[in-house]
């Protein structure tokens, strides 16, 4: 198997993520303070021991009057805000994590110049009523990317539609993010890897011997699930953790790939600090599954990155996870719709987003 991230197109696409300027929104007063369900730290702020209790920074399942605003265009993409108070959790969008915000970011492509009309034809998000992970009706955030640059049906550019946390730079600590994700049911078949084989190969697949198919298919496609980047005021970062689903249509399998590197728009020569593939824990498609990611940042051996899918650990890595410039998080794309080498459309649903300042009691075994 080739080193998949060494695929030049994939590397370019993965590296080009989200370079637009940050909003200057600072409103720490609203940090979790609007929660109907206060965290233990708010209930009992008196002693150090109680301050060690996990505190929810934000929880929402998009219930009640949550709505998406019209697009705010910039150059090659747009921002889209999520507004309203969740009727089940009591938290108001957007949360002001460490003085920052959360919003959707739509990127048309590296060099695109788009209007709301053209971008809307390329990708969109909407809140939908669907059957949730507990089998009952619920509202969830639907995201789709219909076309790549120039109407391409396979994306190798930075085209993406993301749910991004944009934290403020100060007062950062441990972070735990959990949500439920449902990937499109036909993801494996769409992991085609190149333009030419997305059309006729599908038509003749039934008569193509597998050994031949594996030889002629380029074999790599990726779908980023979560992407956390550091950065300064200009988004020039020095560290990234990224979780992807890799697709190998020829081998007819999907699997997990996670890594820590310095590909965070900081212009540094690429350095991969660690990479872990997991082919043991299944990649569910067409059904809900839980994504959990925890990070404790440190330059020492106590630094930790932990990830779990449906309660099964896929990454538990200790060691430094600081970049050369010790920069803080500034773009945590909790959930992305960002594919490389996938036959479009790429679509998915997200529900029950939770953000905590450490592992909550509801976290999977860690
Ligand atoms: Ca919901």
Write the layout of secondary structure elements.
Elements: H1 8-15, H2 40-43, H3 48-51, E1 56-60, E2 67-68, E3 72-74, E4 77-80, E5 82-85, E6 92-93, E7 101-107, H4 116-122, E8 123-131, E9 137-145, E10 160-166, E11 175-183, H5 187-190, H6 200-204, H7 210-216, E12 221-230, E13 240-248, E14 253-261, E15 272-278, E16 288-296, E17 304-309, E18 312-318, E19 329-340, E20 346-356
Antiparallel strand pairs: 1-20, 2-5, 3-4, 4-7, 5-6, 7-10, 8-9, 9-20, 10-19, 11-16, 11-20, 12-13, 12-19, 13-14, 14-15, 16-17, 17-18
The protein binds calcium ion.
The site of calcium ion has 8 residues, from strand 9.
For the secondary structure, the number of strands is: 20
CATH-scheme architecture: Sandwich
The CATH class label is Mainly Beta
Mean pLDDT across the residues is: 85
Describe this structure in words.
- By secondary structure, this protein is mainly β.
- It has a single domain (4-356), classed as Sandwich (Jelly Rolls).
- It is 11% helix and 39% strand.
- The strands form 3 sheets. A 9-stranded antiparallel beta sheet has the order 3-4-7-10-19-12-13-14-15. Strands 1, 8, 9, 11, 16, 17, 18 and 20 form an 8-stranded antiparallel beta sheet that branches.
- The longest helix has 8 residues, at 8-15.
- The radius of gyration is 20 Å and the shape is globular.
- The two termini are 31 Å apart.
- Residues 1-46 have low confidence and may be disordered.
- The protein binds calcium ion.
- Calcium ion binds next to strand 9.
- Calcium ion is lined by residues 61-63, 132, 138-140, 351.
């Amino acid at each position: 198997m080739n080193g998949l991230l060494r695929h030049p197109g994939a590397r370019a696409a993965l590296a080009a993520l989200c370079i637009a300027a940050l909003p200057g929104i600072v409103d720490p007063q609203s940090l979790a303070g609007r929660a109907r369900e206060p965290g233990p730290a708010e209930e009992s702020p008196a002693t150090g021991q109680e301050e060690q209790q996990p505190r929810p920074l934000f929880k929402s399942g998009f219930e009640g009057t949550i709505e998406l605003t019209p697009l705010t265009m910039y150059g090659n993409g747009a921002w889209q805000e999520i507004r309203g108070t969740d009727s089940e959790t009591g938290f108001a969008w957007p949360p002001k994590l460490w003085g920052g915000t959360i919003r959707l970011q739509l990127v048309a492509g590296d060099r695109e110049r788009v209007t709301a009309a053209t971008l809307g034809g390329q990708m969109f998000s909407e809140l939908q009523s669907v059957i949730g992970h507990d089998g009952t009706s619920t509202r969830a955030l639907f995201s789709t990317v219909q076309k790549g640059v120039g109407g391409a049906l396979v994306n190798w550019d930075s085209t993406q539609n993301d749910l991004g946390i944009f934290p403020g730079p100060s007062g950062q600590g441990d972070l735990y993010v959990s949500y439920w994700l449902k990937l499109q049911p036909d993801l494996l078949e769409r992991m085609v890897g190149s333009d030419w084989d997305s059309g006729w190969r599908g038509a003749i697949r039934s008569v193509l011997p597998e050994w031949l198919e594996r030889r002629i298919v380029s074999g790599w496609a990726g779908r980023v699930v979560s992407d956390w980047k550091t950065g300064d005021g200009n988004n020039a970062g020095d560290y990234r953790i990224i979780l992807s689903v890799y697709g190998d249509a020829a081998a007819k399998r999907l699997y997990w790939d996670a890594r820590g590197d310095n590909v965070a728009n900081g212009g540094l020569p690429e350095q991969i600090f660690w990479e872990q593939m997991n082919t043991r824990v299944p990649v569910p498609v067409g059904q809900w599954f839980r994504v959990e990611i925890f990070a404790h940042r440190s330059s020492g051996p106590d630094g930790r990155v932990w990830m779990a899918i449906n309660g099964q650990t896929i990454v538990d890595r200790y060691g430094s996870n600081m970049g050369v410039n010790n920069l803080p998080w500034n773009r945590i794309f909790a959930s992305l719709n960002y594919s490389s080498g996938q036959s479009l459309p790429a679509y998915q649903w997200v529900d029950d987003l939770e953000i905590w300042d450490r592992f909550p009691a509801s976290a999977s075994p860690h």
